[in-house]
Fold:
Amino acid sequence: MPQVSVIRASDIDAAVGGGSRQYLTGTLARAQALAHIEDAELEAGFSDYDVDTVDQPHMHPRAREYQLVLRGRLLIRELATGVVHDLRAGDFYVIERNTAYAQKVYAHTRVFFFKNPAGNDKVAVELDAAAKEWVAEGWPE
Structure:
């Protein structure tokens, strides 16, 4: 294994986009367009959204998520409290383990993310009535 592993910007640009999620590092169970660097300890990558999107509400019992909004905007609702975070380009945020949340992402948003530890520990969660209403409200200006 090389001491320095590199994924070229041209390869990243070719793979990321079109509403995709591409991992730079991790131990991946599914194939993706981008050749990633195998890493059992850390997952890192890009989430790219071409259209307004509501992601599946979920939580991670093992992983802490670190995210940087590169462009665009997203809203995260903590399901336990109803607190909504309005995140925009340049904002960095951390989602703690066992935090159930819903996410509304505006079109043309790109997020750079890290998850530690690596591994797919995503657990889908149900929305309560208040969260369902929040999702149905759409995307505020």
